[in-house]
Amino acid sequence: MTANKLKVGLVQQSVENNDKIANWEKSASKIKQLAQDGCELVMLQELHSTLYFCQQENTDFFDLAEPIPGPATDFFAKIAAQHNIVLITSLFEKRGSGLYHNTAVVFDRQQGMVGKYRKMHIPDDPGFYEKFYFTPGDLGFEPIQTSVGKLGVLVCWDQWYPEAARLMAMAGADMLFYPTAIGWDKTDSDEEKTRQFDAWQTIQRAHAVANSVPVIVANRTGFEASPVKGDPGIQFWGQSFITGPQGEILAQAGSDEEQTLSVELDLHRTEQVKRIWPYFRDRRIDAYQDLDKRWRD
Fold first, then answer.
1. Catalytic residue at 30?
2. How far, in Å, CA of 248 to CA of 128, rounded?
3. What is the CB neighbour count within 10 angstroms for residue 197?
4. Which residue of 9, 236, 237, 257 lies most exposed, with the fewest beta carbons within 10 A?
């Protein structure tokens, strides 16, 4: 990292089975490519160790979870140290008997694990039965301090909530990160697919704009069949992307291929944007009391 410059990278990959070691090695090869390209920070997609098991409610899938620290954190800590990078990963955490989280874990060069974030917003929709598996996070919206800055790490469904992005930015996050697993129902029309993707990208670009910070999004790609007979499965739409602090797209992956992205971020420009667009100065915090309510009756 040079003064005010940081090269960041992400990995967009498909998952074909629940062979964790094979999937970790596959990720490791992509991380190596990005590190050799000069990236000092790399992010993997959501739940990259296995297939997206939340298409079905099945108690056997709890066997896929693991403790933190555990085999996955041991593996990726070594990768981060080997390449001297900051690394953001995503794990199915077994916190205790009957207690599980969807957890992002951050490693910082030779320091090992320096922080984690437990997914706060948990969806429960056809094909995305995450409430069956994951307890909502209890670590709050706290950026993770690393050698390259304070990282506002959130996970997938969190990306639809401006409150989460705002609270991370208010706590000093220099960048926002979203490891993600989102895709289309195969029965959706082309028009609906376009609307869904556009909404997904637009809301995250808006987080960059509203908080004047870069946003980095790593989504998975490929088709994963549903374990339930007759269900259409999920076509993960990829299209991982990186924006600057005004929501401008700096890099974007394709929809149906494994890919890596890397961008050199100009953090000095981020500071300049914040001075020109002083959203935090002009917030009317005296008038926002009702934001902690579920609904205004």
1. no
2. 30
3. 17
4. 257
